[in-house]
Give the backbone structure.
Amino acid sequence: MPVRYPTAAWIALGVVATAAWFVTATRLMRLWGFSDAAPAIGLIAAAIVALTLWRWAAMDRQQRALAVLRCPRCAEAIETQHEHARPGGVETGLQSWACQQCGYVLSEPLTCTECAV
Ligand SMILES: [Zn+2]
Ligand SMILES: [Zn+2]
């Protein structure tokens, strides 16, 4: 689970990490004798890092919205439901969130303390 940062911190982190990886990958490729491909490989590495960070940030935003029972998509109040695990039936508990406003639905396996063991 990624650490929670405010959006500005995510952007700053994204810029720094992306630039750092571009430089690192370009240098490595030059070092290994792929001078021609170095900038391209650097760009690919930077794109992967940027994409990964963007996904983490999106996940972070979603977790934060769900924690306060707000829809991550439209910010309306969201309904939450927990299905307990049942011995011989459902092995893990299931937590689900549903937004009446925009139809956003999310289900995650979650075994709570009251789930049957
Ligand atoms: Zn439960
Ligand atoms: Zn919604």
